[in-house]
Design goal:
The protein has 204 residues and is α+β, with helices and mostly antiparallel strands. The chain has 6 helices and 12 strands. The protein is flat.
């Protein structure tokens, strides 16, 4: 970083290490099998991944993925994950409306740092706890076998749960990611498809 600041010129740096990419890069090009998956600032590729590959590649611990059910009625869209109804924010509903998203199965992405211990939410059982000092990675499983990892700040009053302990994880609604289960494209951050050209008879 200091070398780049001193020389004050453009660097093209190729790496498989996401930490190097996130800390060194002003703009990051993420590639898979020779194809560009997303171009953006470190903040953009972390907070607004356009597809499953980018979402899973950027971030440590890796983003959690679970199957969800998207429904729609006269009040708008609702989402259930692991049998629990999760609220959607207004802008998320507007994004789904803009894309004319059909109800059905979706892939839900939740970063470990956006899962909180709470009195309500997704019921889980503790599996493994990794204490890393100031934080701990809680590996849990839901009733349907989905693994969810929560990144929790260590506090004096918070003890690491023993295996099999039951509790709830509450996702931050505004930080949820939804992906098309077939294409893997984000339902929030992928570019909207171009409008179809009107047919000849419609032009007339």
């Amino acid at each position: 970083i200091k070398l780049r600041q001193r020389i004050n010129t453009t660097f093209i740096y190729v790496t498989h290490d996401q930490t190097e990419a996130m800390t060194l890069g002003d703009r990051i090009v993420i590639m898979q099998d020779g194809n560009i998956m997303q171009v953006g600032t470190p903040s953009e590729v972390f907070n607004k991944p356009q597809n499953l590959f980018v979402a899973g590649f950027i971030g440590m611990p890796q983003m959690n993925f679970a199957q969800g059910k998207l429904r729609k009625d006269e009040r708008g869209y609702t989402l259930s994950v692991c049998g629990t109804v999760i609220g959607l924010t207004d802008w998320q509903k507007e994004a789904l409306e803009a894309r004319k998203t059909e109800p059905g199965t979706v892939t839900v992405g939740i970063r470990p740092e956006h899962l909180k211990l709470a009195g309500t939410g997704i019921p889980v059982k503790s599996d493994v706890c990794e204490l890393t000092g100031s934080t701990m990675n809680l590996h849990t499983r839901t009733a349907d076998g989905t693994e969810l990892v929560a990144l929790v700040q260590v506090r004096e009053e918070l003890e690491a749960p023993k295996p099999g302990t039951e509790f709830f994880l509450q996702p931050e609604e505004s930080r949820l990611h939804l992906f098309d289960s077939e294409t893997g494209q984000s339902l929030f951050y992928s570019p909207l498809p171009a409008p179809e050209e009107p047919k000849e008879e419609e032009k007339k």
